[in-house]
Design brief:
CATH class: Mainly Alpha
Structural class: mainly alpha
Number of domains: 1
CATH architecture: Up-down Bundle
Distance between the termini: 86 Å
Number of helices: 19
Order of helices and strands: HHHHHHHHHHHHHHHHHHH
Helix content: over 70%
CATH topology: Na+/H+ antiporter like fold
Length: about 425
């Protein structure tokens, strides 16, 4: 089979499976993206490869992974550009206090627990060439992320977007995204430096990254604002934004962080005048979410084999990973929200929402595997953790809502005629 024919057949299988799985997920009360994640994992060695190894090997031979990797990375890069475009600066300013406090707790607590967990994990779970420090930093970063897109979709489907809880969750997740990607940029730089780069080159790249971020924030925004004033959201403006995202991705990749950080940064610095950034994001997402992201899920699934987690020891490690992930993210966020003045039911709901990892976790895990920070076995563990924490969000929210409704029904009511 020719390479192009195989790639087209792979895309047909991936997109058809993703559409079916997304529809089934909606039928059981889950966001479509959860079904797409499950489809990606099912197309890999965990299910398809185990049930029909000969067919799976013919459809997804190892030599074809590179083409899928390129398509999937392009899709995620454009998706991160759209996420940056949707970063609501006004929402961050309006709810800065509570959002920053909650988000920082949802970053600091799981990050600290991840740092503490890493030395206790078997050394074989780390990348072969990575230093213990880089592995610990990566575990902390992977424990800290929140899936902003999945969270936003859950809020919309449950009609919580306009509520205090929804607004706070969106603002906290936005702050969380910025913090998590900044941390990850540093972790990738440390991992690459530890993998053989000299200290001088690592320092030069760090300085270059700092200058790049400052230039994007100070110099590029006014130039983009002038362009936005002259042009409606047409082909030229979308093309210019994509070009800017690609340039920033290339620059951050050279600077030792990661191309995806540059794409997110490019979207974040585009001016928000008149809702233009959101309109550009709509144009990008129409293609990316329907056609390119399912390819990323499939590629992530092809590299994740749950069969690598074999034996009671590794499953005990997975249980510990789940405990740290849920306890740090959900518990840290809920405690901070409660200290910030929210009632317990809203605080727990906010913690549940912040515990949603979804796509963003898979992106970070793929980066970790690519730069050699983690082993394939630990990658499989963390993919399973990301899927589990995302699937549990909607049921836990429903459980909290039922508890709140029962509590309200039991509360004594004042009789207007009394007194």
């Amino acid at each position: 089979m020719l390479d192009l024919q195989r790639l087209l057949l792979q895309l047909v299988v991936v997109l058809a499976t993703a559409r079916l799985a997304g529809w089934l997920a909606r039928r059981v009360g889950q966001p479509r993206v959860v079904g797409e994640m499950v489809a990606g994992l099912a197309l890999g060695p965990t299910l398809f490869g185990a049930l029909a190894p000969a067919t799976w090997g013919a459809l997804f031979p190892a030599e074809s992974f590179q083409a899928l990797a390129v398509v999937s990375q392009l899709g995620v890069l454009l998706f991160l550009l759209a996420i940056g475009l949707r970063l609501d600066h006004a929402l961050l300013r309006q709810r800065a206090g509570a959002a920053v406090a909650t988000s920082h707790a949802s970053i600091v607590v799981p990050f600290a627990l991840g740092l503490a967990l890493a030395p206790a994990l078997p050394r074989a779970l780390a990348g072969a060439q990575v230093t213990p420090l880089a592995f610990a930093l990566f575990v902390g970063a992977a424990m800290s992320v929140t899936a902003f897109p999945v969270l936003a979709r859950i809020l919309e489907e449950r009609r919580l977007t306009g509520t205090r809880l929804g607004a706070l969750a969106l603002a906290a997740a936005a702050v969380d995204d910025v913090s998590a990607w900044t941390i990850l940029a540093g972790v990738v730089a440390v991992a690459r430096a530890g993998a053989g780069e000299g200290a001088a080159l690592a320092a030069a790249r760090t300085l270059g990254l700092t200058i790049l971020v400052a230039a994007a924030a100070v110099a590029v925004r006014p130039l983009l604002r002038r362009l936005l004033v002259r042009d409606a959201v047409g082909v030229e403006l979308v093309a210019t934004t994509v070009l800017f995202g690609l340039v920033m991705a290339l620059a951050t990749e050279w600077a030792g962080a990661h191309a995806l950080f540059g794409a997110f940064l490019a979207g974040a610095v585009v001016p928000r005048d008149g809702g233009t950034a959101a309109a550009i994001a709509d144009r990008l997402e129409a293609l990316v979410t329907t056609s390119l992201l399912p390819v990323f899920f499939a590629y992530a699934g092809l590299r994740a084999s749950v069969g690598l987690i074999e034996g009671s020891t590794l499953w005990a490690v997975f249980a510990l990973v789940m405990l740290v992930a849920v306890g740090g993210k959900l518990g840290g966020s809920a405690a901070a929200a409660r200290l910030g003045g929210l009632p317990w039911d809203e605080a727990i709901s906010l913690g549940v929402l912040m515990n949603t990892r979804g796509l963003m976790e898979l992106v970070i895990l793929s980066i970790g595997l690519d730069v050699g920070a983690i082993s394939p076995t630990f990658y499989a563990m963390m993919v399973l953790m990301a899927l589990t924490t995302t699937v549990m969000t909607s049921p836990l929210l429903a459980l909290v809502e039922r508890h709140r409704a029962r509590a309200a029904a039991r509360a004594p009511r004042l009789d207007p005629a009394a007194g």
